[in-house]
Amino acid sequence: MLKRLCLYAAAALLTLTACSTDDVTDQSLTTQNTAIDVAPSTTSSSTPATLTQTTTTTKIDAQIEKARQNFHRLVPDELFDQFTSCDDNGVRDSMACSGPKVGQFQFFVSEVKAASTAQLLTGLNSSRVLEETDSRIVGWSILGSTAVITVVDKERGLVMQQMVSTDDIDPEERINELGLLNQNSHQGAEETLEPTETSATTHITTSTTA
């Protein structure tokens, strides 16, 4: 009788051990399956963000390159390298470009605007022209405490404008900093002034002597 009881007890113990082992095995398999299920979701969630960032950067670069191709005759090519964004600004054939170090610029393709802007620069008392040729005008106009720096290509109907506060920025210095002046034309204008002053001095001296 005692022997049978021992056998029953041993059988029960084996059954409990087997059940316990099965539970551990099932739990381990469940954990592994969960890990396998979670890993792909982490990878898939990070991939779209990377693609979105790359796509956005590509679009920005394409817009800056578009502005460079259309308006490189107005400003130095190096200026486009400092832009961080260029977008259509709501006006036909125009763009707005900006950068943290250079500020915001407006670019236009319009023969009408080019003609009217050139007329304003040369006709208003509040405007000053630093460079003027048959095809190009560089200068600024004052509107209150704001200076509108302007470059006009009359032949191609191109206009660039930047608004700056005269309280903070001298427009002539700004134009020189941006390299907007054609140095050959600027030097030629200075050389043209010198003989005029010399001739006037000679005339006065001659009249006095006489």
TrEMBL record:
Keywords: Signal
UniProt-annotated stretches for the region Disordered: 186-210
Keyword Signal applies: yes
Biased composition (Low complexity): 196-210
Signal peptide limits: 1-20
Protein name listed in UniProt: Secreted protein
Species: Corynebacterium kutscheri
